[in-house]
Specification:
This protein has 4 helices and 7 strands, in the order ββααβαββββα. It has 221 residues and is α+β, with helices and mostly antiparallel strands. Strands 5-3-4-6-7 form a 5-stranded mixed beta sheet. A two-stranded antiparallel sheet has the order 1-2. The longest helix is centred in the first third of the chain and has 51 residues. About 9% of the residues have low confidence.
Length: 221
């Protein structure tokens, strides 16, 4: 029985044009089947990286509290620095980014403050809706007085409920998180969920309905 492949003089098998086209078609079909799985794996890896970042933030906040009479870092301090800047300025977070990174001249999110799953414009545009150098937000009800029910909290005063309240999570700008857009908007960039770290250090992924549910007790102390 003759092979459909052509035999060259030196004994090597040479594929015909039709055989090559069939092989290419099979490879394309195989890639089409594998691509969704590969994308899902990449997205899962990015989500794990994000959760590790949140754990680093949690440790930095704990260290800050130990050095500041148990007070959580404020949304912005008396010098006008926002909470990520405060943690960097006082060496609770080590980063190559200098601490003045929330300026128009240095707008981009990078280093530990950049989530690799965020596809939006990572720049501070001078308003509360633009990036402020970080893709993560702090629970506004724990470190601010600018939202209804919000207050400046001490870590030790909430020791019995550490596992109950969100500390920091994926944010779509403005460095703050809460029950509404006015309080701060979560970013659901990990399989349509938002990664958060709670006050006790455990992490979870929550859906939009969980964030915006006014009966949910993960925000208000």
């Amino acid at each position: 029985m003759k092979s459909s492949s052509r035999i060259e003089k030196n004994g090597r098998v040479a594929f015909t044009l039709i055989e090559m086209l069939v092989m290419i078609s099979l490879l394309l079909v195989l890639m089409a089947f594998l691509s969704p799985g590969l994308k899902s794996a990449r997205d899962s890896a990015k989500s794990i990286q994000c959760i590790n970042t949140l754990r680093q933030f949690h440790l930095a906040v704990l260290q800050y509290c130990q050095d500041n009479e148990e007070w959580l870092p404020p949304r912005y301090d008396s010098d006008g620095y926002w909470w990520p800047q405060t943690l960097v300025r006082h060496n609770y977070i080590k980063t190559k980014m200098h601490y003045g990174f929330y300026t128009l001249s240095n707008p981009n999110c990078n280093g530990i403050f950049a989530c690799s799953s965020e596809k939006g414009v990572s720049a501070y545009d001078g308003t509360m809706t633009g990036w402020h150098g970080s893709h993560y937000g702090f629970n506004i009800y724990l470190n601010s007085t600018s939202a209804p029910g919000a207050k400046l909290c001490k870590l030790i005063d909430m020791q019995q409920v550490h596992s109950k309240y969100v500390l920091i999570g994926d944010c779509s700008g403005s460095l703050r998180l809460g029950l509404s857009i006015a309080s701060g908007t979560g970013a659901f960039r990990h399989h349509a969920k938002m990664n958060v770290v709670f006050m006790d250090g455990h992490c979870d992924s929550i859906e939009p309905s969980e964030m915006l549910d006014s009966s949910n007790t993960i925000w208000l102390p």
